[in-house]
Design goal:
8-stranded mixed beta sheet, Dihydrodipicolinate Reductase, domain 2, 15 helices, 494 residues, alpha/beta, 2 domains, Rossmann fold, 35% helix
Length: 494
């Protein structure tokens, strides 16, 4: 979120550099930042892996993946030679103390090359169960002693419930100060999500309307066409609630609902997000079924292709109780949002891939046009996150002609019409981490409060298997019960 500025020499240490995330997201992101002049003048990516790889072989592997996953295809041939000189493959065993001593020596050698003690950015692109091991070894080896220079990036999940999140935060605090810990949620790096704050607080025509007096409801939807693919084993222990709502959707909700920050300071913005999470009304155990709906996809078809049921996916139990769909109605107990329902939903194997936010405004209390031929449509503001990237304002206007007849129209701001090649989410977040900007990263109390919001839902669903599973067809809009969640308030999904 910062302006372009000179960055200090930096050693970037990637744990799990041969994994899927590194090849699809991390190396393409660093490469794109490099060719756009946003990397430090002096840097080295120290790629850690267990395999015995030749340095040149590893670089060829990275180049092959850049061809597949980088958004800057045309520049690979001309820029690769420069970029590859900043990559070093380093064989490393996560659980061996001696490997960290060798890593320390390598980083000191790089410091000598820079002529200065460089910043260190540790990226843990590994399974969550290795976080404690790595953190302990980093501390014992003295690899991250300087809070002003040394940072660590951790991928979600940040625990699997509130107690484990507290335990993880406590463990990390033994090695790192809070300002050194960058808990990354790629959703917050998406261009349209970032623009929410600018849209709200940079426009006098919207912020005065952004409250319970004018807003009837808020909807946040993240629908995916894909199923669990080859991640069935992982997803069995996760589900839609933990995989999407506890982090991605609640963070988006925070940006929609937060009070205006006094400044763009990271601490100020994160404070306002925590305020939102604390204000979300906790759902009692005996009311979970009233406020939350879960689903699991069965067999279905999409675009003429037969799709298997979730319980038929590799690594999934035949009687699985894991939800692949979740929808929840939240209320915020504060003055701004009193009585306004916030509906969030997410699901796999849906009819289409579409992530968006809908702000539905209240109808006019009275209107000259109510008695006309056509009923008035309520004004809506729709923020499309993906695959569309735009902001749409729906309002009423007179239909051209000799009669006074109204019709709904849209005013659209399309990101692609302004810039066809927008930065990937990881580019934004990695640049912020290099610059030391924590704004888009989750703080420990944010993580813990987010887990607290879903705690009772999580407990109820785990202890009460749903006998209706599977309860929606793959390629559909989700379970029928999801519609009832809104119909009670005379609302419907947009």
């Amino acid at each position: 979120m910062n302006e372009n500025k000179a960055l200090q020499p930096t050693s970037i240490i990637i744990f799990g550099a041969t994994g899927d995330l590194a090849k699809r997201k991390l190396f393409p992101a660093f490469y794109n930042l490099f060719i756009e002049g946003r990397m430090p003048e002096q840097f080295n990516i120290v790629a850690l892996g267990r395999a015995e790889k030749d340095n040149d072989d590893f670089k060829n592997y990275i180049k092959e993946n850049l061809v597949l996953f980088s958004r800057n295809q045309v520049s690979i041939d001309t820029e690769w030679e420069k970029f590859q000189s900043h990559i070093t493959y380093f064989r490393h065993q996560i659980d061996e103390e001696n490997s960290y001593k060798e890593l320390d020596e390598k980083l000191k050698t790089l410091d000598n090359d820079y002529g200065i003690r460089a910043n260190r950015l540790f990226y843990l692109s590994i399974a969550p169960n290795f976080v404690s091991i790595i953190s302990g070894h980093l501390k014992n080896a003295g690899l991250a002693p300087n809070p002003a220079q040394d940072r660590i990036i951790i991928e979600k999940p940040f625990g699997h419930d509130k107690s484990s999140a507290i335990e993880l935060n406590s463990l990390l605090s033994r090695t790192f100060e809070e300002e050194q810990i960058y808990r990354i949620d790629h959703y917050l790096g998406k261009e349209t999500v970032q623009n929410i704050l600018a849209f709200r607080f940079g426009n006098s025509i919207f912020e005065p309307l952004w409250n319970c007096k004018y807003v009837e409801s808020v909807q946040i939807t993240v629908a995916e066409e894909v199923g669990v693919e080859s991640r069935g084993g992982f997803y069995e222990g996760t589900g839609a609630l933990k995989d999407m709502i506890q982090n991605h959707l609640l963070q988006v909700l925070c940006m929609i609902a937060m009070e205006q920050p006094a400044s763009l300071d990271a601490g100020e913005i994160r404070d306002r997000k925590v305020d939102v999470l604390k204000s979300i009304r906790r759902i009692p155990l005996d009311r979970v079924s009233h406020y939350a709906v879960r689903g699991q996809y069965g067999k279905g078809t999409l675009n003429g292709k037969d799709l298997k049921a979730y319980r038929e996916e590799e690594g999934v139990a035949a009687d699985s109780n894991t939800e692949t769909f979740a929808a929840i109605k939240f209320y915020l107990d504060n003055e701004r949002w009193e009585g306004v329902p916030f509906y969030v939903r997410t699901g796999k194997r849906m009819k289409e891939k579409h992530s968006y936010i809908t702000i539905q405004f209240k109808p006019l209390p009275q209107s000259t046009f109510i008695a006309g031929k056509h009923p008035l449509s309520q004004n809506k503001l729709i923020i499309n996150i993906q695959p569309l990237m735009d902001i749409r304002l729906q309002f009423m206007t007179k239909k051209p002609g000799l009669t006074v007849e109204l019709k709904p129209v849209e005013m659209v701001f399309d990101y692609f019409s302004c810039k066809e090649d927008t930065p990937e989410a990881y580019e934004t977040l990695l640049l912020d981490a290099l610059e030391g900007d924590l704004t888009l990263f989750m703080r420990s109390d944010q993580v813990e409060e987010a887990w607290d919001v879903v705690k009772n839902i999580q407990e109820y669903w785990e202890n009460n298997p749903d006998s209706s599973f599977p309860n929606y067809a793959a390629g559909s809009n989700g379970p029928e019960q999801c519609e009832l969640l809104l119909q009670r308030e005379e609302h419907s999904w947009v």
